[in-house]
Amino acid sequence: MNNFTSGSTFFLMGFTDIREIQILHAVFFLLIYLAALFGNLLIITLITKDHCLHTPMYFFLKNLSFLDLCLISITVPKSIMNSLMNHNSISFFGCVSQVFFFFLLATTEVALLTVMSYDRYVAICLPLRYDVIMSHRSCVEMAASSWLSGGLNAILHTASTFSIPMCGSPEVHQFFCDVPQLLSLTCSFNMGELVVIGISLVFDFGCFVFIAISYIHIFSTVLKLSSREGRSKAFSTCLPHLLVVTLFLSSGFFAYLHSLPKSPSLLDLLISVFYTVVPPTMNPLIYSLRNKDMKIALGKLRKARYFQSN
After folding, report:
1. Residue 3 burial (CB < 10 Å; 0-12/13-18/19+)?
2. Quick check: is 3 in a domain?
3. Which residues form the G-protein coupled receptors family 1 profile domain (predicted)?
């Protein structure tokens, strides 16, 4: 039973050992990654260039797109390269980096989604006070607080996960270094990381409750609107946001609360896709294709490019 050290190597076992399926997985993940890359970069570009989108809602959306871009980039490219090269190793420091940046970005995203629900609550339920409550300074402070909470959580998870020596086979039955699988490799019971996971789950659950309460107030206000168009616009803005939050948090709760099976489970791999790959890919579709302001901004960008080329 050899302990893992800073010079050790982990092996990300991924989805399968069958070469043909590995290639198929690499192509599938590559298409998803390119779609997420294009969608999130497009949103960042549109919001940056169009001054009409320099509002609190789009300020937070720009931050969300940047988070999604980084979140999918720390796990998927490595998995694609491993499948293409049939070489599933990752260094000890590479694994530590994945754990740190995953929790930094995932926790920040949960906090930011909570802030975005508050922004929608103020916009719909307290419209006359919106400019005062959601001032530029307040938006920057809320975004900074989201990043700060993510950084703190990442430090705690990384330090506690790797504070206990790991023994035995260095096989991580996942396509990236995820904490539940790493805990199964520890030489002894890692009470510190379990406590940190508990704190994280309380934080995430608190965010979910806050989001749920915000949307209860939002929907009760929306249903009172006399304008059918107003109700439709409010629901089209809020329901996709609620869907992303529910998918992101529910899959994460399941992955970190249920006990790992003794043998590798395909379900664990599929669940991890729902909180690492799906949200960064779906967010651009949800927030751009169904958003009138984003469509107008895209039209302006196309016209500007057309006139520049001519």
Report:
1. exposed
2. no
3. 39-287
Please check whether residue 50 lies inside any domain of the structure.
yes
In a domain, 176, yes or no: yes
Residue 54, domain CATH: 1.20.1070.10
Q: Which domain, by its residues, includes 120?
A: 9-308
The one-letter amino acid code at 299 reads G
pLDDT tens, 157-197? 999 988 887 776 778 888 888 888 888 887 777 788 888 88
Q: What is the pLDDT of residues 65-88, one digit of tens each?
A: 999 999 999 999 998 998 888 888
Task: Indicate the pTM of the whole model.
Answer: 0.88
Using DSSP, state whether 241 is helix, strand or coil. helix
- The region, left, alpha or beta by phi > 0 then psi within -120 to 50, assigned to residue 14 is left
Separation CA 217–CA 150 (nearest Å): 27
Domain total of the chain: 1
Would residue 211 count as lying in a domain? yes
Rg (CA), the chain: 21
Q: How far is it, in rounded angstroms, from Cα 153 to Cα 298? A: 36
Q: Which two tokens stand for residue 7?
A: 């010079």
